[in-house]
């Protein structure tokens, strides 16, 4: 099964107070950093939830708007699965400044060994589910649609309701999964 990397970038960044995708670290926006990392390991990369920025430097990246607005990352995941042409989707957030190609390769390896009957692979980071560093099977889309129709928007609830295998991330992978949600967290990333 082919796997598309989907970078979810349609959030409102309420806690940050500004669009996290356009924050700049070492001369690149967080969105560009995520896309370059994804392109290092995957032939198919899409950004969900926003239009292509003017002057976008990576031509092979597809941009797709959210099919539904105001339903959070679960809606973005549904859009990603619909746009992936039957591929599984490796979903990542756009606000992961330490994401590495080796972390994505590790997750691809977990996806290759999953049971075909599962809805995907949910990554555990020190025992906590990382829904925006997990793999979702194309067959998961009907479950997502039923969750959305019932007014449920939680990726965690989706993983609980589905047949997801779990993979505990090793420490080096956990270090790559840091995301930024507040100005204080961002300041800590920039200082390092």
Structural description of this entry:
- This protein has 192 residues and is α/β, with parallel strands linked by helices.
- The strands form 2 sheets. Strands 5-4-1-6-8-7-9 form a 7-stranded mixed beta sheet, with helices on both faces. The protein has a two-stranded antiparallel ribbon with strand order 2-3.
- The protein has one domain (3-191): Alpha-Beta Complex (Spore Coat Polysaccharide Biosynthesis Protein SpsA, Chain A), CATH 3.90.550.10.
- 33% of the residues lie in helices and 22% in strands.
- It has helices spanning 30-39, 72-83, 101-112, 141-149, 155-161, 171-175, 183-191; strands spanning 3-8, 24-25, 28-29, 45-48, 62-64, 88-93, 120-125, 128-136, 164-168.
- It contains 7 helices and 9 strands.
- It is globular.
- Its cofactor is Mg(2+).
List the helices and strands and how they pair.
Layout: E1 3-8, E2 24-25, E3 28-29, H1 30-39, E4 45-48, E5 62-64, H2 72-83, E6 88-93, H3 101-112, E7 120-125, E8 128-136, H4 141-149, H5 155-161, E9 164-168, H6 171-175, H7 183-191
Parallel strand pairs: 1-4, 1-6, 4-5, 7-9
Antiparallel strand pairs: 2-3, 6-8, 7-8
Helix pairs in contact: 2-4
Family: Belongs to the MobA family.
Protein name: Probable molybdenum cofactor guanylyltransferase
Main location: cytoplasm
The whole-angstrom Rg is 15 Å
State the helical fraction: 25-40%
Q: Could you give the distance between the termini?
A: 38 Å
Shape, per Cα inertia axes: globular
Largest sheet, in brief, is: 7 strands, mixed
The average pLDDT value, as a whole number, equals: 93
| Portion in strands | 15-25%
Low-confidence stretches: none
Number of strands: 9
Find the CATH topology: Spore Coat Polysaccharide Biosynthesis Protein SpsA, Chain A
Subcellular location: Cytoplasm
Pfam family, one: NTP_transf_3
GO molecular function: GTP binding; metal ion binding; molybdenum cofactor guanylyltransferase activity
Family: Belongs to the MobA family.
């Amino acid at each position: 099964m082919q796997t598309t990397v989907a970078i979810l970038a349609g959030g409102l960044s309420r806690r940050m107070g500004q669009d996290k995708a356009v924050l700049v670290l070492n001369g690149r926006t967080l969105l560009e950093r995520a896309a370059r990392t994804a392109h290092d390991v995957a032939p198919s990369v899409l950004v969900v939830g926003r239009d292509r920025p003017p002057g976008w430097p990576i031509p092979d990246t597809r941009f797709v708007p959210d099919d539904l607005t105001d339903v959070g990352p679960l809606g973005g995941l549904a859009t990603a699965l619909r746009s992936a042409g039957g591929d599984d989707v490796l979903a990542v957030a756009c606000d992961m400044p330490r994401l590495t190609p080796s972390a994505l390769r590790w997750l691809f390896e977990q996806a290759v060994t999953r049971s075909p009957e599962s809805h995907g692979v949910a990554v555990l980071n020190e025992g906590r589910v990382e829904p925006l560093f997990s793999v979702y099977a194309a067959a998961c889309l009907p479950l997502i649609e039923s969750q959305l129709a019932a007014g449920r928007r939680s990726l965690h609830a989706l993983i609980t309701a589905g047949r997801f295998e779990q993979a505990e991330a090793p420490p080096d992978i956990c270090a790559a999964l840091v995301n930024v949600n507040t100005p204080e967290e961002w300041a800590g990333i920039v200082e390092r």
